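Re: beginner question about structure tokens

> Can someone show what the tokenized structure looks like for a real chain? I only ever see the sequence side.

Sure, here's an example I had lying around. Input first:
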Amino acid sequence: MRRDLTRSPLIVVAALLLAGCVPQSPDQDTFRDRSELAIEQTVSAVESTLLVLRLLMREDMLTNYAEIAVHDAQDSLSAASGGYDALNPPRQLDQLYSSTSTLMSDASSAVTDTRIAVSRDSAGDFAKLEKQLSKLAKDLHRKLEEVRAR
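And the corresponding structure tokens:
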């Protein structure tokens, strides 16, 4: 019986690709580190969006540039959320995962709402969005300090 050796490399490559698709299950310390990183990235995106919004409200930034800056913040936030959502938290850290995911989702919604308002030049919505983003930034900083304290 003769084996077809041309299939062997394909099987190895397929196995490696599938192994890369398996969600990560880090230990508690690694998960806390990943949570900290995800929160830091979220804070950065929220604060960047908040800065852009405040500059627009003072008419110190061109709308075209503001649209690009908020879109970039949204892309950064999407990448952070996608990486965090792919983790399998240790059972003992389900609460950390849940609360962090909720904050990240809220941040994503607020940044998306801001992007839409900026692109529509809906200056009447800016004050409400500034308040929402400011609260989220404070909540995220609080969560970051909580994660770092453990």
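Each token stands for a local structural state, so reading them left to right follows the chain. The radius of gyration is 20 Å.
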